[in-house]
């Protein structure tokens, strides 16, 4: 078979990584992501059905996509998540899931069966009460038990921790200490602005500030940079002698756009070429009309801006700046 013409943008970036949101809904309400009351519910028919997700995924794979990650909202609360995971596992892709970890134990047999060997789990605090406050529901014990369960069966675990000033920035060193005996990879994520999350430039903890904090616990010689991988969003490090590693995702102050290879498909079947873009192209309606969506996919990606949907800096972002909520885009 001839190799497909890759999905590229006008800046020469090849896009071979698809992130699919399975649902906008979630069983948690992390305040940096979701309003307390959840998001307004929409008719079921506006969302992709399982067959449509598999159909669109096949199209993406035929255009060169080699990696698919399921996200949301919380992907594992979808009733047919298991069947979707099984269906996608038959495609020639590396399959991953980003989850809040609450339902991982229910899915462990499925993950084993389809060889999912790496999972991203959100955990913003190592303190039960604080984690409960941030996510407005307390499932700390279950999430921790699930992390241990995954490690026990040899699944690689990446922890996503959004670091916010005065909320959990006093735990940066604790997270790194956690990697001493536990082989997890912790990723500190800069707090990003999304619709309704009350973001403010002063609330984020920047890449540089995280590094400064690390410097108060470890010497420069102890903090060893790890080799950069292609399309990596994080700068990664390991403390000398620790089993685990950590990284910093500086989407706000240190964007990683130049090597971005990500395509996002929302639960309602719209393609977005950037987390910060308000431009979305509907693939679901044409699919339902029996049309071929390849050109729409190529058009969306071709028009991708060089950096963060054209936003040069977040520092002077208008207070009224509105993009969609993270759950609507698919994190
Ligand atoms: N529910 C799943 C989870 O929490 O992992 C998947 C969806 S969630 C939207 C995907 C990722 O986006 C999570 O790691 C979460 O921490 C991150 N996220 C959500 N809102 C964010 C924000 N305002 N700034 C930075 N990261 C954010
Ligand atoms: Fe739900 Fe994930 Fe958003 Fe938290 S970050 S509210 S777990 S979708």
Write up what this structure looks like.
- Helix 1 (50-62) packs parallel to helix 2.
- The model has no long low-confidence stretch (mean pLDDT 92).
- Helix 1 (50-62) links the parallel strand 1 and strand 2.
- With 331 residues, the chain is α/β, with parallel strands linked by helices.
- It has helices at residues 50-62, 81-88, 104-113, 128-135, 140-152, 172-178, 207-217, 284-288, 294-302, 326-329; strands at 17-21, 67-71, 94-99, 118-122, 156-163, 185-190, 223-225, 235-239, 245-249, 262-265, 270-272, 281-282.
- 27% of the residues lie in helices and 17% in strands.
- The protein contains 10 helices and 12 strands.
- It has a single domain (17-329), classed as TIM Barrel (Alpha-Beta Barrel).
- The longest helix has 13 residues, at 50-62.
- The chain has a 12-stranded mixed beta sheet.
- Bound molecules: S-adenosylmethionine and iron/sulfur cluster.
State which percent range the strand residues make up. Answer: 15-25%
Oligomer state of the chains in this structure: single chain
Q: Secondary-structure element order, as H and E?
A: EHEHEHEHHEHEHEEEEEEHHH
How many separate domains make up the residues?
Answer: 1
Bound compounds: S-adenosylmethionine, iron/sulfur cluster
CATH level-4 homologous superfamily: Aldolase class I
The name CATH uses for the topology is TIM Barrel
How are the strands ordered across the major sheet? Answer: 7-8-9-6-5-4-3-2-1-10-11-12
What gap, in angstroms, lies between the N and C termini? Answer: 33 Å
**What form results from the Cα inertia axes?**
globular
- Assigned CATH class: Alpha Beta
Supply the number of helical segments.
10
Total DSSP E strands: 12
Radius of gyration: 19 Å
Could you estimate the helical fraction of the residues in percent? Answer: 25-40%
Give the helix/strand class.
alpha/beta
Instruction: Supply the CATH architecture.
Output: Alpha-Beta Barrel
Q: Ranges with pLDDT <50 over ≥5 residues?
A: none
Averaged pLDDT: 92
């Amino acid at each position: 078979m001839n190799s497909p013409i890759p999905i590229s943008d006008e800046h020469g970036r090849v896009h071979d990584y698809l992130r699919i949101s399975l649902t906008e809904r979630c069983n948690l309400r992390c305040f940096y992501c979701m309003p307390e009351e959840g998001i307004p519910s929409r008719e079921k028919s506006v969302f992709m059905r399982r067959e449509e997700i598999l159909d669109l995924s096949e199209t993406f794979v035929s255009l060169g996509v080699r990696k698919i990650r399921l996200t949301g909202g919380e992907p594992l609360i979808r009733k047919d998540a298991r069947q979707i995971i099984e269906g996608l596992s038959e495609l020639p892709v590396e399959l991953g899931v980003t989850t809040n970890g609450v339902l991982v134990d229910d899915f462990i047999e499925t993950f084993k069966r389809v060889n999912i060997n790496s999972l991203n789990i959100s955990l913003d605090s190592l303190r039960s009460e604080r984690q409960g406050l941030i996510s407005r529901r307390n499932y700390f014990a279950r999430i921790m038990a699930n992390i241990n369960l995954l490690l026990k069966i040899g699944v690689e675990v990446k922890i996503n921790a959004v670091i916010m000033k005065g909320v959990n920035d006093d735990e940066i060193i604790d997270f790194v200490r956690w990697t001493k005996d536990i082989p997890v990879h912790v990723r500190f994520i800069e707090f990003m602005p999304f619709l309704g999350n009350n973001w403010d430039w002063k609330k984020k903890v920047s890449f540089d500030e995280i590094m400064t904090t690390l410097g108060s616990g470890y010497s420069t010689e102890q903090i060893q940079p790890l080799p950069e991988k292609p399309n990596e969003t994080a700068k990664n490090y390991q403390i000398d002698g620790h089993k685990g590693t950590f990284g910093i995702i500086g989407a706000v102050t240190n964007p990683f756009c130049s090597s971005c290879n990500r395509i996002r498909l929302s639960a309602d079947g719209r393609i977005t070429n950037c987390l910060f873009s308000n431009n979305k192209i509907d693939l679901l309606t044409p699919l339902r009309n029996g049309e071929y969506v390849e050109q729409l996919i190529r058009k969306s990606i071709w028009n991708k801006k060089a950096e963060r949907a054209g936003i040069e800096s977040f520092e002077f972002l208008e207070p009224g700046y509105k993009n969609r909520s993270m759950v609507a885009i698919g994190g």
